[in-house]
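Worked problem 6 (solution included).
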Amino acid sequence: MSLSKGTIKVVLIQVRDQRHIAEHERDCFAERLGRDRVELHTLNVTENPNISISDVDPYAAVILGGAGAHTVTEDYDFTAPMTDLVLKLVDADRPIFGSCWGHQFIAKVLGGSVITDIAHEEVGTFNLWLSDAGQRDPLFEGLAKSFFGHMGHHDYVVRLPEQAIELAYSQRCRNQVFRLRDKLVYGTQFHAEMDAARLIERLGFYRESYVPDDDVFETLTSNPVPTPESDQLLRRFVDLIM
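Solution. The predicted structure is:
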């Protein structure tokens, strides 16, 4: 497929060992990035763990997606290659966007700390607040100081890397958004790729491990909360790199 003027190629690195969930995640990112502006490709490290910098060279930006059944607090076959990749991308000033697991992985690779803590888990839609730095950051410029984001995580970043700037936080979990200083490297703990309808679908896939209580699942899926601000973020990220 030839690229039209104003269109860029982006790669989504996936950590999904179930094909239908990998396809769902890809479609979510394609929708939020804008199919009219982004040609989205995928690389799944559960299938091919030995990823390298040469695999992502053709792309204008790299997205690290979620994981569902994997945790940043454990090592897998892909952990070392992915660590090397992220370090090289950051060193080369390549644009990166990490969502949920990707957010946590970038933070850990660069010297931050990630733990599993059910007391701080967030499943559903939660209110977030921009920090002072977040209000000044071009990714959030002009948006409301408080907005909603869709969540699904047991792990969270308890300490950011030294070069990271906190841009947003929630009541239960700080470090919801960070950016590396002077780089187009962002991480969001919430899922900027999913609108309310897509969240309901994703919760259905992971119901047993994330929402086992029938009443809670019914509440979450029968009263979806729109997220107009966070729905814009991936397109805004594209704006920053075009």
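Discussion: The longest helix spans residues 19-33.
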